[in-house]
Design goal:
The chain is of the alpha+beta class. The chain is built from 3 helices and 2 strands, in the order βααβα. It has a two-stranded parallel sheet with strand order 1-2. The radius of gyration is 13 Å and the shape is globular.
């Protein structure tokens, strides 16, 4: 699951954590419903001034590698 947010606040960590917590229950439901090993919430937070979190690279690499195929 990918959630994109544009924020005026420069607290990347807070915004990412809020997005992950928002979809945690849904991720568990997806795992149970679709009989998959894992569901990952990818919070993409972009600041109004165009800055992106350093963690975005890690999240995108996880998507490219394919979670669960390792």
């Amino acid at each position: 699951m990918v959630d994109v947010a544009v924020s005026h606040d420069e607290n990347f960590v807070k915004a990412e954590n809020e997005k992950q917590m928002k979809y945690l229950d849904l991720a568990h439901e997806v795992v149970a419903m679709w009989s998959v090993d894992t569901a990952v919430v990818v919070p993409i937070v972009v600041m109004a001034n165009g800055l992106i979190a350093k963690s975005l690279d890690e999240y995108l690499m996880r998507l490219i590698r394919g979670i669960g195929s390792e």
